[in-house]
Amino acid sequence: MVNERYGIAMTEILHYLKGEDIDKILNKFMIFLKENALKNYKRDFL
What is the pLDDT, as a whole number, of residue 45? Predict the structure, then answer.
């Protein structure tokens, strides 16, 4: 697991990615993002 701050950032990245954007990202990197994103992080803005 990475630093909590990076986990939050990865959660935000996954939130903003759209379908066609996801297709352009390497599968290994998507797996890395999903594994290290914070599962219990709740966005409290917007």
Answer: 65
Domain ranges for the chain, please list them: 4-36
Give the residue among 10, 9, 7, 12 at the shortest CA–CA distance from 46: 12
What is the C-alpha to C-alpha distance for residues 40 and 19, in angstroms, rounded to an integer?
23
DSSP state of 11: H
C-alpha span between 1 and 10 (Å, rounded): 12
Kindly tell me if the per-residue pLDDT of 38 is higher than 60: yes
Distances (CA, A) of 18 to 1, 2, 6, 28, 35: 25, 24, 20, 17, 18
Stretch 4-19: mean pLDDT, rounded? 90
pTM of the model: 0.77
